[in-house]
Amino acid sequence: MQNYVGKGTVLELGLEIWSRRQWLAVVVFALMLAGTASVAAFLPNIYRSTATVLVERHQVPETFVRSSITGELETRLQTISHEMLSRARLEDLITRFGLYPEMRKRAPIEVVVEKMRRDVQFELKGVEQTSGRSATVAFSLSYRGRDPATVARVTNMLASLYVDQNSKIREQQASQTTRFLRGQLEETQKRLEAQEARVRDFRARHIGELPQQMAVNLATLERLQAQLQLNSSNQLHARDQRAALIKQLADTDAAETVGAPESTTTKLAKLKQELVALRTRYSDKYPDVIRVSAEIAALESLLGETSSTPSKTALSEVDAEMRSLKAEEERLRRAIDMYQRRVENAPQREQEFQALSRDSETTKELYSSLLKRFEDAQLAESMEQSQQSGQFRILDPAIPAKEPQAPNRIGLILAGVLLAVGTAAAAAMLAERLDTSFHTFEDLRSFAKVPVLASIPHVPSADETARLARRHRLATASITLGLALVVAASYYLAHGNDELVRLLSRGGS
To answer: SS3 sequence, 272-302?
Structure first.
């Protein structure tokens, strides 16, 4: 192996290597350039079309009608994107527009769908707000393929699907919200009616024991006790009157027996004198005054009749009155007991009634709140159906591209030239380092360390010259065949290879 140190400049060294390895470098350069140029030439043209969709905010201010659509717009857009890029949706588009015909022949549909999913690009466009967050005002949809007209149609179809899907999702959300609130409202109404029925049943079962009836119960209880006291006084008076009548009848019978009817008149006069004396000292409610008054009334009644039958009638009347007073006493005592129990049960009933009323009031407030929200949801649903809220509108539809997006053939050829030059230089240097022969006197002197006396030039013979010519022809044919094979391999590799275009394109995806 040679040592080139000190043998001259780098330029001189390069020229020496070029003089010996120029054919190798030219062949390697030609093969590499032919391969890269063929790949650049045979790669299919890829076109991209883009559609811009505008996000229209609420046309009716939320001060008047609040939308029932929940969630961020970006989240909904991502949801729609997943829906649009689903296998079923993309497979339908592939079939409808006849996309990737060659690929569908040799690959399963899952691979084709994944290829289209990579060819679709979605990008949000927003503006900065005062809060620092970015508000989405539009988004772009793009698709790439070989036929520019088909690419534009597919892009516009995707944009239309986004618009339709957004409207569908918003209407579904509004309808679902309305249905949910309607169900909640009906359930709450049933619960409220049941609770109000329990309150009414409680009122009916515990009538008179309710807390708001406490004052009436106490007043009624006081009135009944007063009536009971008056009844007791009336019974006492009736008993005295009955005793007087019985005594009067006894005196009458005795007087008739002895034939001295004047004794009744005498006794009446005495009783009147006794009554006057009693009234000077006592009131009319004093028992003795009441008794004497009853005896006087009985004697006067006795003297006014011609026989003893009216006195017996008065006694019967007194007995009937006493029975009536006794029955009234029992009724009053039962009523007093009833009202007394009401007063005693009032605290417990108040607690039970408050619990029932509290549940009923809570449910009533919930029902009012749900009713308000249900009405808002109905308005929001009407607004969504009339497309007055948060709709998408295609601002710039996609048009067929005039120039392909990829590949960049000039760039690829320039890169191929640089790669070919580098590969040729590397091949020449490698061949030079692997060659162990001596090419100059200096090489021999540096290796043998002995003086070189003379140099004998090589004189080729006729056979050698003919053999060398055959080798040149064979080499030329081999190089030509190699170039043809490189071009054929490049055609096989690059023709219809969209993935290679994607890999070689700037940006990658």
So the answer is: HHHHHHHHHHCCCCCHHHHHHHHHHHHHHHH
**Token representation of residue 300:** 């006067």
Q: Where are the domains of the chain?
A: 10-45+406-504, 211-370
pLDDT in tens, 254-283: 655 554 445 667 777 788 777 777 777 777
Paired tokens of 260: 């001295």
Amino acid at 304: G
Peptide bond into 407 cis (omega under 30): yes
Nearest to 209 by CA among 391, 324, 32, 352: 352
Q: For residues 7 and 12, what is the distance between their CA atoms, to the nearest angstrom?
A: 9
Residues forming a β-bridge with 136? 126
> Comparing C-alpha atoms, which of 23, 1, 38, 28 is closest to residue 500?
38
294: number of Cβ within 10 Å: 23
Q: How many residues does the chain have?
A: 509
Pairing assessment for the beta strands 47-55 and 392-396 based on DSSP bridges: antiparallel
* Reported confidence tier of residue 302, pLDDT bands at 50, 70, 90: low
Read off the DSSP letter of residue 45: P
β-pairing, 134-145 vs 47-55, is: antiparallel
In this prediction, residue 50 has a pLDDT band, given cuts at 50, 70 and 90, of very high
pTM of the model: 0.52
Q: What is the largest CA-CA distance in the chain?
A: 211
User: Is the pLDDT score of 3 beyond 50?
Assistant: no
344-360 pLDDT per residue, tens: 887 887 787 778 778 88
Q: Which of 326, 314, 297, 320 is nearest to 235 (CA)?
A: 326
* Distance of alpha carbon 108 from alpha carbon 87, whole angstroms: 13
